[in-house]
Design brief:
The protein is an all-alpha fold. It is built from 21 helices and 2 strands. A two-stranded antiparallel sheet has the order 1-2. A hairpin with a 5-residue loop joins β1 and β2. α2 runs parallel beside α7. It is globular, with a radius of gyration of 22 Å. The termini are far apart.
Length: 455
């Protein structure tokens, strides 16, 4: 019985171990142009510029003799200064591992410029480190409502049956696994706050929430969980606001700690742009809230969430089951999910550039674990035919997602130009066939920037 009660914990170790095996199998940290690339360059640039070059203004990149453009991606502020497009939340997450890599490079004689293999390896390990603790927090929360077996199955599905696996292994330093882990911790701390709202819990809650928002400001809507946790009717909602009013001191602590996380970012923006608040994206990269691409984002062959991560369709459909098995999160889910869908698919580039599936949703998979776990629990109490049919569907959806992951890695799922013909024409293939490229349809990014149809 003791082994059984810790089965979900063993599953976490197995999942992290499997991800570790995937990383060591491909050894991306030894490959030129891998790991620190694309968005990661913009997340990461704060660290080498500050700790190695001692110059966040990036004036050193004006010096000749090196192709700095391959290492530091910046935009020009109105005053002409260089400014990073991405906020520094991810650099804060990377920082301890960057420090260890820098120390190792110094001690071993490795080139200590922030971009050699030790730094890349450290970034990959940082993802597994945070994901490990994120899964531990998610497990702790799930075990409040579900048994160990239900929790274990849910953890397997959320990691191995979604694109979280890809973004925790092959593109691990991207922000999504980190945000998933922070939101997992946030949910657990919210529960602790309502059990006993101490100043210490308030400090932790504020720090986590501030970091969640700094990494990806649109994830600020996870605050819905803080407001609506364990609220199931209008009377309780009124009581919740009354309770929060009486706990204004703790709320002020939460707000102050969230603000404190943002202080370095505000100082950086002021130093580089002269403004305390600065929209660091180009002006034409914005949200079109009145014309979201919801149908495309959920069902299209290019990046349909439900096509490439079918378990999320199951999770959304089974949200009503949380009313019976995880009622504390029912209202949060009913508010958060449509709001999250609307915000994500209102972004001008609703397919989020070159990536696998709808990566923007990975951050919230911790919350989506509750309807999925509710389904698993419901299946244990139904007729055998329904039970086996349900488990078969879940298994097939998981296998399909794993297959999609392999296909994307080997190139038979394109990063931004998939079509119905391309999808089905290469469905049984890991590698693209001879006609694959002809069946793709590249989106027009310039049109999308203007809020027009990308075709």
């Amino acid at each position: 019985m003791k082994t059984r009660s810790y089965f979900s914990l063993i599953i976490i170790f197995l999942l992290i171990g499997s991800l570790l095996v995937s990383m060591f199998n491909v050894k991306f940290w030894k490959q030129e142009g891998q790991v620190i690339k694309w968005d990661v360059l913009e997340y990461y640039g704060y660290l080498p510029s500050f700790f190695i070059h001692n110059d966040l203004s990036l004036k050193f990149t004006d010096e000749p003799g090196e192709d700095w453009g391959k290492k530091f991606w910046t935009l020009a502020a109105p005053n002409g200064n260089k400014v990073f497009k991405m906020s520094m939340g991810m650099s804060m997450m990377y920082a301890p591992f960057f420090g260890l890599a820098h120390l190792y490079a110094k001690l071993t004689g490795e080139v200590a410029d922030g971009f050699t293999p030790p730094y890349k390896f450290a970034l990959l390990m940082s993802c597994l480190f945070y994901l490990f603790f994120g899964l531990l927090f998610l497990r702790k929360v799930l075990l409040i409502f579900f048994n160990d077996i239900n929790t274990a199955i849910t953890l397997i599905a959320i990691v191995a049956g979604t694109n979280l696996w890809y973004y925790a292994s092959f593109e691990a330093p991207m922000s999504h696994a980190y945000s998933f882990s922070l939101i997992s911790a946030f949910i657990w701390v919210v529960i602790q706050f309502y059990r006993k709202p101490t100043f210490f819990i308030s400090i932790i809650l504020g720090l986590i929430y501030g970091l969640v928002c700094l990494i990806r400001p649109s994830n600020a809507i996870i605050g819905v969980v803080f407001i609506l946790y364990n609220v199931t009717n209008f009377q309780q909602l009124k009581g919740r606001f009354g309770f929060l009013v009486t706990r204004y001191k703790e709320l002020l602590v939460i707000a102050f700690m969230s603000f404190l996380v943002w202080v370095p970012q505000l100082l950086y923006w002021h130093m580089q742009t002269g403004n305390w608040l600065y929209y660091s994206y180009p002006e034409n990269e914005c949200f079109y809230f009145l014309s979201p691409h919801i149908a495309d984002g959920l069902f299209s062959y290019r990046k349909g969430l439900f096509l490439y991560t079918p378990l999320m369709l199951i999770a959304v459909i089974t949200i009503p089951l949380t009313w019976k098995y995880a009622r504390s999160f029912s209202l949060s889910l009913l508010v958060f999910v449509p709001l999250n869908v609307w915000i994500i698919f209102s972004w001008w580039c609703w397919w989020y550039g070159g990536c696998f599936g709808q990566r923007a949703f990975i951050d919230s998979f911790a919350l989506m674990a509750f309807p999925f776990a509710s389904l698993i629990k419901w299946l244990t109490n139904v007729q055998p035919v329904k039970k086996y049919l349900g488990y078969t569907v879940i298994f097939l959806c998981t296998i399909l997602s794993v297959f999609h992951t392999a296909k994307y890695y080997y190139g038979s799922i394109h990063w931004d130009s998939m079509t119905r013909d391309a999808y089905w024409g290469s469905f049984t293939r890991l590698r693209p066939g001879p006609e694959f490229q002809k069946l793709l349809k590249e989106p027009d990014y310039d049109k999308a920037n203007k809020g027009e149809d990308e075709y």
